[in-house]
Specification:
This protein has about 575 residues and is α+β, with helices and mostly antiparallel strands. The chain has 19 helices and 12 strands. Helix 10 packs across helix 13.
Length: about 575
């Protein structure tokens, strides 16, 4: 079933996991010693089956029948609950978690590959489960044993679901302006008062309880992000009474329609009871555990939507007969036309490159957890830090572009609701905004990640890429691509230094989005060079397809970085100097 799936390519996942990233090597490490290729494959088979049989069939139905609120409760189509029950019953929510909490203790890279099946099948329904998993991971990392017992175990059983509550109507992405307040009480609990906006999964009847993780400011705390603390605020308190958390309304989105998106009021009456995680003033540091996981998850979701759109447009192009090749009188499937091949190759280059990047990032999580030396673990953490804004934003931009091309391949049918690809585009359009916009990720990359610790972040990235370039130097057909990548990388280093040479951070960051896009293309070129080296001299359509996609990326895509780096090197002030009255 999986070999012909239109959700994800099992063959590509196997190539990335076993032929490139060598996931079987991880089974030699104590954490993963109980596993083998067989257990990895069995988990993949299970994910494929549940995603195909329980998630995919109601994807369009949930999109057409989005949640409604009658003033008292939220109504969802029943298929959502049925699919999530099958998912939780399988234990896959805890696939990568510790055995001590009932997890499967799979490598993160394998767990991430499993996730793609559900995001490709039905990103709206899967959102409930993946937010719950990220919530549980945060509490496991920073909560007390009592908090883990009270909240995490029911979440992993599917009895409770979880959310993250950061944004507010007046603050948006500016977390320094969070106004929700928390008042301490003599019993050690807190009472929260405030509003949270854009809370996915914030209200529903899919579970007995919803565990909200809420950023708030304790009375007397300093202004800014240093004054924020993190609280567990359940919908239902441990004694069974309803907490003071109220749904004010649903937001109606262009995509992800199956996931409720809410405005929540905390403390309309006596205050919402909250349980502090860790210590006061450390809330944002704790929340970044979930935010960074969610950023990688957003990138992975963008990849999954791009992959399924590509597979569906490829099938359509093979079946749709229209037009003739020059000099021929016989109609042909549209896949034979050069321009359609261009659109399919572009999609393949985007989605398979991005999938490689996201699985590599997951492999870094495994290195951070299990590498033999502290130095190796620290190096993996640093590299993951640098790659996170790229892993979130590049797929969100370019796998969306792949969905756009999938619509184009379908022609007039593409923008009708008779075919899936228009929904995939709408769903994916949310991802450039989810978990920090493109511009926020750009500021993070250029303003923090590549310059942190006197440039240690940029050095880690360049060392990684130069290592691959060196290995590709005597490769029969990858050597030329390696030379192109080396030249681009040199320019990235030069431009980074030039941007910060002025001592003016406003000027340095004025074109940060262009910087993110140029660095992102450089990183994806590295992924494709790595895939080429993994292909080696193997023969067959699959490997020839990898060579063709790599060729497309190096010849059609990497050259985009030239003008972008030229613009950055010029220290262009156009956006910075534009007066608001001119707009």
């Amino acid at each position: 079933m999986s070999s012909s799936s239109l959700l994800m390519s099992r063959r590509d996942l196997d190539f990335l996991l076993y032929e490139w990233l060598d996931c079987e090597e991880l089974t030699a490490r104590p954490r993963y010693a109980e596993h083998s290729r067989e257990t990895f494959d069995a988990a993949m088979d299970l994910a494929t089956t549940i995603a195909t049989e329980h998630f995919a069939p109601h994807n369009k139905l949930a999109d057409a029948n989005e949640p409604t609120f009658d003033g008292e409760r939220v109504h969802l189509i029943p298929e959502v609950a049925e699919a999530l029950a099958a998912y939780f019953d399988s234990g896959l929510i805890a696939a990568g978690m510790d055995e001590s909490v009932g997890g499967g203790q799979l490598p993160q890279v394998v767990a991430s590959a499993l996730t793609t099946w559900f995001q490709a099948a039905n990103v709206g329904t899967s959102g409930y489960a993946f937010l719950t998993a990220a919530n549980a991971n945060l509490v496991l990392a920073h909560g007390s044993p009592e908090q883990v017992e009270t909240w995490v175990r029911p979440m992993l059983a599917g009895r409770y679901f979880g959310t993250m509550c950061l944004s507010e109507p007046g603050a948006g992405s500016s977390l320094a302006d969070v106004a929700t307040r928390a008042e301490p009480r003599p019993d050690g609990s807190y009472r929260l008062f405030g509003n949270k906006m854009w809370i996915s999964g914030g209200e529903h009847d899919l579970a007995e309880n919803i565990v909200h993780l809420v950023l708030a400011r304790v009375a007397g705390a300093p202004a800014g992000v240093k004054g924020l603390s993190l609280f567990i605020v359940p919908k239902v308190l441990p004694d069974g009474t309803r907490n003071d958390v109220t749904l004010a309304g649903l937001n109606h989105k262009m995509g992800y329609r199956g996931t409720t998106n809410t405005l929540l009021n905390f403390g309309e009456r006596d205050g919402a009871v909250g349980d502090l995680i860790g210590t006061e003033g450390r809330g944002l540091a704790y929340m970044f555990h979930m935010m960074n996981e969610a950023r990688i998850g957003v990138g992975l979701g963008a990849v999954a939507l791009g992959c399924t759109g590509y597979l569906k447009s490829l099938q359509y192009a093979k079946e749709r007969v229209q037009g003739r090749l020059p000099g021929s009188a016989t109609p042909v499937p549209i896949v034979e036309h050069a321009d359609v091949k261009r659109m399919l190759l572009a999609q393949k280059a985007y989605v398979e490159g991005a999938l490689g990047l996201l699985l590599y990032c997951a492999r870094l999580v495994d290195e951070e957890r299990t590498a033999a030396t502290a130095e190796e673990r620290t190096a993996a953490h640093l590299l993951l830090d640098v790659l996170t804004p790229v892993a979130k934003s590049w797929p969100s931009q370019w796998c969306l572009a792949a969905n756009d091309l999938a619509i184009q391949v379908h022609g007039g049918y593409g923008y009708t609701r008779d075919y899936d690809v228009e929904q995939h585009y709408r769903d994916n359009r949310l991802n450039p905004i989810h978990e920090g916009t493109h511009g926020i990720q750009a500021q993070d990359l250029l303003g923090r990640k590549v310059v942190m610790d006197d440039g240690a972040g940029l050095l880690a990235l360049t060392d990684l890429i130069r290592g691959t370039i060196t290995r590709a130097g005597d490769h029969p057909y990858a050597a030329a691509y390696a030379a192109d990548l080396a030249a681009t990388l040199d320019r990235v280093v030069e431009v980074t230094a030039a941007l910060w040479s002025t001592g003016d951070p406003r000027l340095a960051l004025a074109n940060a989005s262009t910087y993110l896009e140029a660095v992102g293309h450089t990183v994806i070129a590295w992924v494709w060079l790595e895939q080429l080296l993994a292909v080696g001299d193997r023969e067959g359509d699959f490997y020839d397809g990898k060579r063709a996609a790599a060729a497309y990326f190096f010849r059609h895509e990497l050259p985009r970085t030239g003008p972008q780096l030229d613009l950055l090197a010029s220290l262009d002030r156009t956006t910075l100097d534009t007066e608001t009255g001119w707009l």
